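Open question from group meeting: does this chain pack into something compact, or does most of it stay loose? Before anyone orders reagents, we agreed to write out a predicted structure and look at it together. Recording both the input and the output here so the notebook holds the full record.
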Amino acid sequence: MAKVTVQDFIKKKSRGEKIVMVTAYDYPTAKIVDEAGVDGILVGDSVAMVVLGLDSTTRIGMATILHHLRAVARARPRALLVADMPFGSYEISAEEALRNAVKLIRAGAEAVKLEGGVEIFNIVEKLVKAGIPVMGHIGLNPQRALVLGGYKLMGKKVEQALKIIEDAKALEEAGAFAIVIEHTVAEVAAEVTKRLKIPTICIGSGPHCDGQILVLHDIVGLSEQVPYFAKVYADLRTAVRKAVEAFVNDVRSGRFPEEGRYRSAGEKFAEELRALLRERYGDTRTR
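Structure tokens returned:
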């Protein structure tokens, strides 16, 4: 099947086809989600919390994202590969944002994602003019949770709803090819989707967007705490624990490794080895 591009995302919106994205942070999971048929893979800064055990996405920088991006890129996915620009990598200046975005592209990303709206117009515009596809991210911006006072549902008030719509329009005007809308009331996400020519991809913002994205660890039940808007499709946490428990029991009981899971040189070789050890070391343990 053909490689998915940013233009394919835009065409899907015009055809009314839903876009599906999933996060991945390493080679094996990237291979799996790509084989499952997703349209896009996000190497998200959510790796900080779901993989590294940190309490916020703001705790990581470019080095961490680049490390995981390179691993995912080695899977050579058919899906569009998008990388988050981490906190502090684009806020200082448009020039600094461009330098960091170039690093992500050179590491294998085919687009970058930035959080913010009107305030990052110039940054998005500069990246796009430099030839770097940009995915926007509005509504709840986890990188700004400290200012927001936590991970709150957005768009509940009219003024806030209007700001989200204005942010979306600004990102489209700046040249973004798609926008993620996170944890925003469904009515606002629906209005944004209707007013844009570029696709919207929701996470926790209802069914009216042009697509959906979820964190892989939530989908397969590996997350310690799954948000209410995510759906768990498998219980890998229990499956993995039971598999390791079985291994522990087999080792302690002597059932592992059983015959066939190791190679032997034979009793003649063992006798020769014991004789040599006795001669060389006088080792009575080999008698």
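Observations to bring back to the group:
The chain is about 45% helix and 15% strand.
The mean pLDDT is 96.
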